[in-house]
Write a structure and sequence with these properties.
This protein is of the alpha+beta class. It is 27% helix and 25% strand. It has 4 helices and 11 strands. It has a 5-stranded mixed beta sheet, with helices on one face. The protein has a two-stranded antiparallel sheet with strand order 1-2. Helix 3 links the parallel strand 7 and strand 8. The radius of gyration is 17 Å and the shape is globular. The chain starts with a strand and ends with a strand.
Length: 174
């Protein structure tokens, strides 16, 4: 069983009290005598603040943009569609690099990734091509959701779409 504890403001994962690469997910990294996981598959679902807010106040405003106001029910539906799309492309525990500016697409993709049980890796769309290439490779992202205008070495554009067709484009490694 995986246990988490806070250690010097960073999460530390211990599998059965044995630090190291025992579950195929954890990687030994020094942090004052402890190790920081590469990732650990957690057995219980994380709290879903979008789902909770949609249940409490579905018609309440959730995201307000210059062009539109989305209710919690709207955001919940889009997050659910994004979660299904992400889940259909990568297995649980895999990393999803999100390279989007602040806005509805980022919110939907981020919470959809978490709802799908994948690891969200938000990256700054202002990074240079070299910085993005390094961050993507270093994170081990299996899926990249990015603005179509970004040139990312080694990936070809594909589509990540939901019922309303308003999910962000996705780049898939070839």
């Amino acid at each position: 069983s995986t246990k988490w504890r806070r250690h010097h403001t960073r999460n530390v994962c211990h599998d059965g009290g044995h630090p190291g690469k025992s579950d195929g997910q954890s990687v030994r990294r020094p942090l004052l005598g402890a190790f920081v996981p590469d990732s650990c598959v957690v057995e219980e679902a994380a709290r879903d603040p979008v789902l909770e807010a949609a249940a409490r106040r579905p018609d309440g405003p959730a995201l307000i943009t210059p062009d539109n106001t989305l209710t919690w029910a709207d955001v919940h539906a889009r997050v659910e569609a994004a979660a299904r799309a992400v889940a259909s492309r990568v297995p649980p525990g895999d990393r999803v690099a999100i390279i989007l500016g602040t806005g509805v697409d980022f919110v939907v993709t981020y919470f959809g990734t978490l709802r799908a049980g994948r690891v969200a890796v938000p990256l700054n769309p202002g990074y240079s091509t070299d910085e993005l290439d390094y961050a993507i490779a270093d994170s081990g992202a299996a899926l990249i959701v990015a603005d179509r205008s970004l040139a990312i070495p080694g990936v070809t554009p594909g589509e990540l779409t939901g019922a309303d067709g308003e999910l962000p484009p996705v780049a898939v490694e070839t």
